What does this fold into?
Amino acid sequence: AFRVLRLFGRLSSLRQIINALTAAVIPVLNAFFIMFLVTSIYSILAVSFFGDLDPRLFGTFFRSLFTMFQVCTGDNWSEVARELFTLQQEKEAREAATFNGTLAVDFVTPVYSGRIYNTTAVFFVSFQVIVAWTLLQVVVAVMLENFGSASDREREKQRKDEADATGRIVPHYALDPLLASLAHFNTSGDLSQRIGALFSVLDMDDSMTLSYMELSEGLKKLKVKPMIYLSEEDFDTITCGRELCNDEGQIALESFEKIMKIQLKLYVQRKKGEAM
It folds into this structure.
C-alpha cells in the first residue's frame, strides 16, 4: 500500500492533481458551509411544518436534515413532497370527520386526489432552486476555479524548480491561446480593432485601465483553450517590468495595444522557428 502511495510523489502529474485538490479544500469547504447553513434552516422549518404530520421523516432536526439532504440530491424528492400532500389530505379528512373530539365510526382514509398544497410545494421547490440548482453549482464552480488556479500555481512552481535545477529559463508563454486567435487578422486596422474590442471585454469596471487582477480574471473568462492563467511574473514580463503600466501599475488602452502587438510578433516568430 505504501509503495502505491509513493507513486504520488514520483509522478508529477499525480502530484500536481493532489496538490491542486489540497489547495482547493478551504474555498470548497466555505462554499459547502453556506450550503449546509441553508439546508439546516430548511430542516428546522421542516420540523416545525411537517414534524407532527410525518415524524418518520421530519420528527427531529437530524431526521429532517437527512431528508433535506435526500431532497438536495434529487433522490425521489417529489415523492417526499407527494407523501406530505397525501398526509395533509388525510389530516383534513380526519378533522372533518371528527365531532366533539371523536372520530366518526365510518371514517375511511381517503385516496389521494392529486391535490397540491401550495405551502408544501413552495417549500420544496424553493429548496430545490436555492440549494440544488444554485448553491450546489456554486460549490462546483468554486472547486473548479480554485482547482484551476492551484493547478496553475503548481505548474508555475514546477517550472521554477526545473529552471533552478537546470540553470536555464524554461519558456512559458501564458498568452499563446489568445495570440493564436488574434494572429488571424487581415490588416493592421483590423488587428487594432480586435485588440480594442478585447480591451473593452477585459475592462470590467469601465475604468479604461487594466490592473493585474482585472486582466488575470478577465483572461480566465475568455473562451479559449487551454484556459489562460496569468501569473504576476507573466504580467511583469509582458509589461516589460511594468514600464508599460501607469503610475498606479495599470495598463491603459494604448499600452495594452502595444503589449499585444509585441506579444503577437514574438508569437509569430516562435511559430516560424518551430516550423523550420
